[in-house]
Amino acid sequence: MLPIEVVVKRLDTRAEAVAAAARLLSPAERLRATTFPAERDRRAFVVAQALLRELLGSRLAVAPETFEFVRDGRGKPALAPRFVASELRFSVDHTEDVAVYAFAHGLEVGIDVELVRDVPEVDRIGSGLFSHAECEAYGHLDPLDRSLAFLRCWTRKEALLKAIGARAGPRLDRCTVSLTPGEPARILEVDGVPGERCGFTLSDFAPGQGFLGAVAVQTS
Q1: pTM: predicted TM-score of the whole model, two decimal places
Q2: Number of neighbours of residue 30 by Cβ within 10 angstroms
Q3: pLDDT, tens digit, for every residue of 131-148?
Q4: Do residues 32 and 83 share a domain?
Q5: For the domain that residue 63 is a member of, what is the CATH number?
Q6: Treating both helix axes as pointing N-terminal to C-terminal, what angle do 39-60 and 15-22 enclose, rounded to 10 degrees?
């Protein structure tokens, strides 16, 4: 069992809920919300970020609106230096009306969620995502299984790279994870290092019907 806490939340994006959520955000977060082209995405970001603040607040006994966020040396979102003694690490992702959060103390963590759906151009998209080993595994799949395999691979890799950090992590095609439907989540290789020695472990979780989730956490 991974030494982390995973929380799944449904996002209430009605106008009154979004207005209340926006009051918890910093000016920088409210400005970031305006960069989303679609109104639905703007609302989801505001509510998901407010929920993050509330979840952090309940764990650290701090008012949600007082949190400050920074980017650490690996490019990962982190709490401002005044909260460093807590050693609390977090990761968040959302899609549609589902948001997922991961929390760990003293260990880097990453989380990702995707809606289960057909991916019409999965072969073309996968060619830029898959490592050589993944391409081989993918090529042996029944065509009907390929969209699910792609989404499994994507969530697992995104969770792993979020845990490592954008500035420290390899390219997507330089890490290999299991992707065959029914196969447990495993890290097989990261930039030439075998998965069992890469310093992270990976697990799937069920965010809700019709969604896939993956979470990665540092092991050392």
Answers
A1: 0.94
A2: 14
A3: 999 999 999 999 999 999
A4: yes
A5: 3.90.470.20
A6: 50
